[in-house]
Amino acid sequence: MRLYLGLIVLVMLLTSCDDGEIIVTTFDFDEENLTMCSSNTREKVLYHTNNLNVFESLSMELSNNLFTQEDQVLTVSDNPIEIPLSGNNRIIYRTYNAEVPEAPGDYFCRDIPPATPTVLQEYESVGGIVVITTSQLPTLNRDGVLDHDGDGIPSIEEGMDEGLDTDGDGIPDYLDRDDDGDNVETSVERDANTDDPTANGYLDTDEDGIPNYLDPDDDGDGVLTRLEVTEDNLYPARNQNDENTSPRYLDPNFTQRYTGEPGNLIDNIIKVRYRSDVVVQNLQLRNLGGDGEEISFTLKNLGSFTSGQVDVVLEPTDEGGDEDDTDNNNEG
Ligand SMILES: [Ca+2]
Ligand SMILES: [Ca+2]
Ligand SMILES: [Ca+2]
Ligand SMILES: [Ca+2]
After folding, report:
1. Could you tell me what percent of the chain has a pLDDT over 70?
2. 62 C-alpha to ligand 3 centroid (Å)
3. What distance lies between CA 292 and its chain's CA centroid?
């Protein structure tokens, strides 16, 4: 017996086979989140369960090299990737006599699943192509506002649409964790205490109307913040004034200038998440027991998988006119 996509409504009801076997299935996995086993249990296994009206699961084992798995991240070498279902790449659909555990350690990610619940029916793929499409998710702050670099200033406010790049390092402000390139992170420069002067709601120590996170000379003493440091420690936030009451870069009365060039010290690492949508073209599932019944779908949405946070390093393309002493290979 073969059922096609247009007949799924019928499959959702009880279907009586010739031999009296009752098939109960909903295949109601659309737009659900897939769970991924960790790479130190069962690598490249994704699954989801449905315990609402019937007890069923759909799991996918992929051995293909087009993607790798580390922590809670799928890294794909192409986008989208297409993996034919054959050999060690397979989809298994099961129904059970009782609720099937959803937690990774409780069932699917074990090499040998527990004896209960009992599997009533098992279908395995005998054809089809898995298509995984991966895209980056927008990074939102606590208020649900887009903040790509997570520095606390909304991306729109950072001139995302205009491509604003305050320090000219080639990384636009909305992706730059140190917007003015003074080696103090924006997240550190941003907030004002109750009595502090502000500009646009952000700390503005020298009250020149430019908030500290965009001001290369925060205390307005004529010495750039990046140079209010010592050879021992090139980070401005870690150099205190003589009285030990304030960092030097926020004390207008402290005007010692470092004569070297500190360079860019802030590794511009931003956190991103990815979402992978999984569909199968021409999925064919065969009942491993009984009469070998097959169920086919021309296109089946298996749901999506959302990664954990991934560190992405953005390298400056321009040091703002200052030569950086990196090891460049000589051409001749
Ligand atoms: Ca920024
Ligand atoms: Ca800064
Ligand atoms: Ca200022
Ligand atoms: Ca200064």
Report:
1. 84
2. 55
3. 41
Contacts of 270 (CB under 8 A, 6+ apart): 139, 148, 149, 150, 175, 177, 311, 312, 314
pLDDT of residue 254: 96
Q: DSSP H helical segments within 18-130, as ranges?
A: none
User: CB count, 10 Å around CB of 212?
Assistant: 30
**What does the alpha-carbon distance between residue 119 and residue 290 come to, in Å, rounded to a whole number?**
13
Residue 285 has pLDDT above 70, yes or no: yes
- 152 alpha carbon to ligand 1 midpoint, in Å? 8
Using the mean position of ligand 2's atoms as its centre, give its distance from the Cα of residue 45 in Å.
43
Q: How far is the CA of 241 from the centre of ligand 4 (A)?
A: 12
pLDDT class for 161, splitting at 50, 70, 90?
very high
- 168 C-alpha vs ligand 1 centroid, how far in Å? 12
Q: What is the largest CA-CA distance in the chain?
A: 93
DSSP letter at 238? G
Terminal-to-terminal C-alpha distance of the chain = 72
Ligand 1 centroid – CA 167 distance (Å): 11
117 preceded by a cis bond (ω within 30 of 0): yes
User: Rounded to two decimals, what is the model's pTM?
Assistant: 0.70
pLDDT surpasses 80 at 268: yes
